[in-house]
Amino acid sequence: MSQDVLVKAEKLTKKFNGLVAVDSIDFEIFKGESFGFLGPNGAGKTTTMKMVQSISPLTGGTLTLAGMDVTEQGRKIKAIVGVAPQEDNLDPDFTVLQNLMVYARYFDISKEKAKTKAEELIRFMQLEEKRDVIITSLSGGMRRRLILARALMNEPQILILDEPTTGLDPQARHLIWTKIRNLQKQGVTVILTTHYMDEAAQLCDRLIIMDHGKIIEKGRPADLVRAHVGEEVLEVLFSEEAMHCLKQYFPDARIDVVGDKIQVFANKPRGVLAKVLDKVSFKGALIRDSNLEDVFLKLAGRSLKD
After folding, report:
1. Spatial contact of 258 and 298, defined as CB atoms under 8 Å apart
2. CA atoms within 13 A on the CB side of 160
3. What's the average model confidence in pLDDT over 264-281?
4. What total of structural domains would you count in the chain?
5. Which of 219, 253, 270 is where one domain is finished?
6. pLDDT of res. 280
7. Are both 28 and 133 inside the same structural domain?
8. What's the start-to-end Cα distance of the chain, in Å?
């Protein structure tokens, strides 16, 4: 992967009527990588994305895309960025093809070139059979694919995806994941926000976790899992006896109570938890691999935020 910096933020800040939504953050996104923004609602990730898109002015700091300053060259930046928003803003009165053709006008793409590109993207997103069907006849998964296709009409260097698979069934999600990976192989830089931790782990080469406008952690998903929660998690049904026993066996481990379960995050080599289960029997015991959701909940907390 090329290590050319395509997006660079330094002390990036955004305030709304005295509220600090993004608090002097620094990050770099390399050309050709898939980069994720994670965080609870209100963490500042969506505000950051809007500044990257050049649709929300900076309060402080600097932000450049492909060497261009978003404050001074917003129009040029928009020409190299494709955006697939979370909301469905397709025109319901137009067909699949017409939605793509109309969108191409915003970029002054010739009708002939737009038609060729639209047909290519319809094939790429496996929407050939729906080419001349109006939007109201499409399933949710088909609409998401069309929104992604529309974002590619201007052949962007950077593709911004806001919750790309929210509300989709597993089959549709995996199809979109495959398309995103294919785009990355073609050299498109992908920037995404997602609430699905498995999605972030599948798609992101690197990511940042934000909370209260600040970056609280950054890195590769697998590295973050190893650094913060270890390789394995032991889950057992809650009882005072089990809790007492686990604290004795794992005095230095992080032990959480989630619902009716006790979770033990032991930053130990794989297999240590299994050795304990050979000695002590716990009700409902399960050893599983640690994952990015464990990291997210540890760093951002378990409470819901609006």
Report:
1. no
2. 24
3. 75
4. 2
5. 219
6. 82
7. yes
8. 37
Longest CA–CA separation in the chain, Å: 73
Residues 279 and 194 in one domain: no
Domain end position, chosen among 192, 219, 246: 219
In the prediction, which pLDDT does 1 show?
A: 43
Q: Is this model's pTM higher than 0.85 or not? A: yes
Residue in the structure block whose two tokens are 């990257």: 52
Q: What is the pLDDT of residues 209-234, one digit of tens each?
A: 999 999 999 999 999 998 888 888 88
Residue 276: in which H helix or E strand, if any? Answer: helix 272-279
pLDDT of residue 270: 64
Which pLDDT value is given to residue 20?
Answer: 95
Q: Decide if 245 is inside a domain.
A: yes
- Confidence category of residue 265, pLDDT binned at 50, 70, 90: confident
Q: Tally the residues of the chain.
A: 306
Q: In DSSP terms, which residues pair with 81 in a beta bridge?
A: 158
The answer to whether the CB of 45 falls within 8 A of the CB of 37 is yes
DSSP state of 95: B
Among residues 82, 100, 78, 80, which one has the least CA distance to residue 146? 100
57-70 b/e with 16+ CB inside 10 Å = b? Answer: ebeebebbbbebeb
Its domain, for residue 239, covers 231-289
Residues 49, 43: Cα–Cα separation, whole Å: 12
